[in-house]
TrEMBL record:
Residues 276-299 are annotated as: Disordered. Pfam families: Peripla_BP_6, Pkinase. This is Bifunctional serine/threonine-protein kinase/ABC transporter substrate-binding protein. Residues 15-256 form the Protein kinase domain. Belongs to the leucine-binding protein family. Residues 287-299 have a biased composition (Pro residues).
Amino acid sequence: MKPLEPTDPRRIGGYRLLRRLARGRTGLVYLATSLGGTPTALKVIDPQHSRAPGFRARFERDVAAARHVTARGLATVLAADTAGTTTWAAHPYVPGPPLPEVLAAHGPLPPRATRLLGARLAEALGAVHDAGLAHRDVRPGHVLLMPDGPVLTGFGGSGTRTGQPGYLSPEQARGVALSPGPADDVFALGCVLAHAVTGRPPFGRGTDQELLLRALTEPPDLADVPRSLLEVVQACLHRDPVPRPTAADLRAELDLPAADGRLPDPVARRVAARVAAPLPEPHPERPPPAPAPRAAPPEPTLVRRRGVLVLGAATAVGVVGVLAGREFLDARRGGATAPADAGYAIGLHTDLTGSRAHFGRGQERGVTMAVEELNKLGRLPFALRLLPVDDRGDPDLAVAAARQLAADRSVLAVIGPTGDEVAGVAADIYAEAGVPLLALSVGSFGSREEYGTLLHARPDVGYTGLVIPGYVTDGLGAHRVGLIDDRAADTYSSLTTRAVSGAIDRARIELLPRVVPVGTEDFTPVAAEFADADIDVVVYCGFARGAGRLARALREAGFTGRGLATQEALGPVFLREAGDAAEGWLFVATYTDPGGEEAGQGFVSVHRERFGSAPGPYAAEGYDAARMLVDAMRGAAEEGARLTRAGLLSRLRGARYHGVARELAFDAAGHYAGEGPMAYLYEAESGEFRFRGPVPSPGT
């Protein structure tokens, strides 16, 4: 649950919004209250989805059908607006924790608790199927745990045709089941049961395309499913939909008295605490302040730096650009088309002054090196410019930056943005304008179908988490591992924690997962617990400040094992917070240090000469991305093709570039598809981060 942002409405359709609950595939879900004070989960559909052809019609059908179905353990639609300017649907608010959160924090559910979970979910699905409908999106995230049993959410009001890869039946993965039915729901329920009792999805983790391919070509991984549940789960996951049991069959097979299938005490306490937590107070509604007189914006100052023009003064939207003067001023006045002789531009959407500036500066320097080099030595058949903008890591400024670059028709593609917190809002704008977007440092974009022009140029957060268990086990020889999900890092931490927890070999590793609530300043209790438990390795999945404080607390508690974190904790903030306790901490990151590899020595030498320092994070990756873009542009120009954003996107999706950092390639949906190292290892040593080379990937 997160506070409302300044751009969020305060009232919708008679509901008063209190907090953000989650981001779904098609919109935001808010905690709201009705006029009578009833807590409600209000899903507001994103404009790009509500405007999509056929979406509103499907949404209206979903809502109309769902409002007539009631069952114990099924959250259905209370009210909706399918025709207004804002498209929304209201559901009962279920305060219990979602199943993935519980599994990440406490590990797999016991077999009998899983049986009862399955029986209650089958009962809810039975009511849906008896009404001649299908749920179409059964997955762990739609299962919320309450003291009296699970509640299945996500029914009605989605407007989507299918559910989540990894829980889709083979016929859905093949595209045969365009209108999913009861047998597809049963397959998904079998996946949920396998996930609940083993702690990992039966088709593993990966990109959407990888999961769809596994559903078509590979059997589910049911190695750890207990014998008491194995036959039922196997029946649900039958490749042929005809022999799968019905929801009624499953309820009869799995049902048992509630007392026999109760949740483990730690899980029950978590559920009870979540349900008992008071609702947040609504934000005070004040009349909007009178608009202040608008001062004329400062005249931008252009400063020449080695032949590149730098916009010095702050602009009206708070972004800084490296531009070629007059064309920028024309675009700012609303023009969307550059003069015919302006050539082409690569946009760089980055964070140069915010919390991820150490990533943004590296990308800026790498891209700058590539553009300068190509303009000088590349014999390009067109004029090329670089247009960076600084969003400072702020979502509002990111929107302004993306609109600025998208409006300039000379911009054929954009590299960026830098941080996860601005990625979604920026990617929406670029997708609507058809601008190819190469994201280098963003960890996870969710479902790629939402961002049609996205090219994700690194493995996502989930894959980074998947390489950690193998290294901890084989590389560090650990037997007891402490795993910390720091809620201050929100989605990033939960995604990484789930990946680590789901991939760890429980036969070889004793895992002690712990959740640290938002606002935690003192890590002493969890550090003392890990020290007393003789933990070999502590894996921390949050940000740098928390990692540094944890390192210090572990040192003070007498902990003698190793600490390991991810790249979001890798930086100067960690060193400052940890002090001497930083020594020996390990970090898994998706960017390389070109100085640590023979092939990158030339790049390092030129970077030092150009900027007076060694390359920073994502400098080599930025260089490679710019070179790949220009190679695709050159290829089109030399073939006599007209250079357009759509044409460039098509070329990039089919390209493969062997760069300084790693191979760059994408599948048809924009997922990273390159070969070579998926992650790299760094170690804190003597106040610096030393590059230790690639981390072995799963299965290598």
